[in-house]
Amino acid sequence: MRTVTPDARAKWLQMVREHAAALERETAALRQDIQPIFFSGSPSLAAEEIEIAGDVDLIRAVERFTSWR
To answer: Which of 8, 20, 62, 67 could form a disulfide with 4 if both were Cys (CB 3.0 to 4.6 A apart)?
Structure first.
C-alpha cells in the first residue's frame, strides 16, 4: 500500500472501514439471534473500537480478527 497515491490509499482505507463496520453490524445481529441457543450462559461480547491509521494497525487488526475464529 505504500506505492499507491495518498488519495487512492485514503479511498481504500475508507472502503475497508465501511466493510468492517458492515461486518461488525451483521456479526452482532447474528450473534444476538443465535445467543439464546448457543451462548445462553455466556456474557455478550461488546465491540471494541480499533483505530486503523496505517499498515501496522491494519496488520494488527487482521491478526486479532483471525485469532478470534
So the answer is: 8
Locus of grid cell 455478550: 44
- For the entire predicted model, the pTM comes to 0.55
**Alpha carbon distance 52, 30 (integer Å):** 25
First to last CA, the chain: 26
Q: Tens digit of pLDDT per residue, the chain (69 long)?
A: 778 999 999 999 999 999 999 999 999 999 889 988 887 765 555 556 778 888 888 888 888 877 754
All three cell numbers of 46: 461488546
Residue 28's contacts (CB-CB under 8 Å, 6 or more residues apart) are 47
Other Cβ atoms less than 10 A from the Cβ of 62: the count is 11
